[in-house]
Amino acid sequence: MSVESVKRAVAARLSDDGKAVVCLDQTLLPNETVYLTLDKAEDLWEAIYMLRVRGAPSIGVFAAYAIYVLALQTKETTYEGFAAEFTKNKEYLDSSRPTAVNLAKQLNRMEKTVKKHEGAAVADLLAILKEEALAIHREELDMLNAVSEYGLTLVKDGDGILTHCNAGPLAMSPGLGAILLGKERGYEFHCWVDETRPLLQGARLTSYELQLAGVDCTLICDNMASIVMKEGKVNACFIGCDRVAANGDTANKIGSSGVAILAKHYGIPFYVFCPSSTIDFSCKTGADIKIEQRKPEEIKTKFYEKPMALESVKCYNPAFDVTDAELISAIVTERGICRYPYTESLKALFQEEDA
Ligand code: MRU
Fold first, then answer.
1. Contacts of 345 (CB under 8 A, 6+ apart)
2. What does the pLDDT average to over 19-26?
């Protein structure tokens, strides 16, 4: 597989008949490549909740298609009936995961489109909604290239780069974009891939994507990050993000803030790759970001032949943590590279209209 085809991996799209959403079941990777065709509300919700489709921008695109597909099934004939049903579907899909802002943002954008065309005929609304979902998808793909170009200016040929979770094409995220772009241009990076407990997105997805693209990479357990940094093997850390607050505090996969603290200790730059769809100016700081809590089975039994702890043992399983803005060397966006203090630099790039 070429670097280009890895970058173009389709996380979600409309089916050929346009009535369902097709997505790659990321829970089965790297062992099986299975595409799901989904059109029922419960299945679409479950695909997000179970991380069949995952990664912030990818969830947003999937949700835009999902709400369009559900709207197609309407029996409502009036604008008012259609709009009320649309909002109900929006709230249902939005309840699947709380932290990645892209989910709520893209669903809200679809709902705004309905409201903007108040009084329109249902058939016209459906055509408009389809265009909106396709536009959201196109915009996220365009963003990937722009962020990757900026990201590549932060590293040099031969660098060791540590990654956490999966922020690559499967997530429709630019976190691996600079590495893939560099590969196309002849750079030889070496990636240290955190396995990313408990759902192993690094082991299952990042090392898979990098390997397919021919990028040299080594898988490590999360608690090995410190030693590879101390041994001088890491020149930069690259992570994606699920929600960036107005002051630059960044929610990303659990363990990201630990990587940032280690990076600071060893004097290694820690970069966040951030499409504008992931910035949430309505959150002043990371304290306003809701952290998703997940089930104990993900820690105790999933991926193991036998349970790895007694059934009675309590588990705490937050899916994300927030990295303090002060620990982030740069936030790389499609409009440019922001530096601390982010309240000013993010605002300067994204202006009041997005705020
Ligand atoms: O729980 P996941 O797998 O959806 O979490 C994904 C991440 O934390 C990614 O790093 C993030 O969404 C990056 S994509 C911009």
1. 248, 331, 338, 339
2. 96
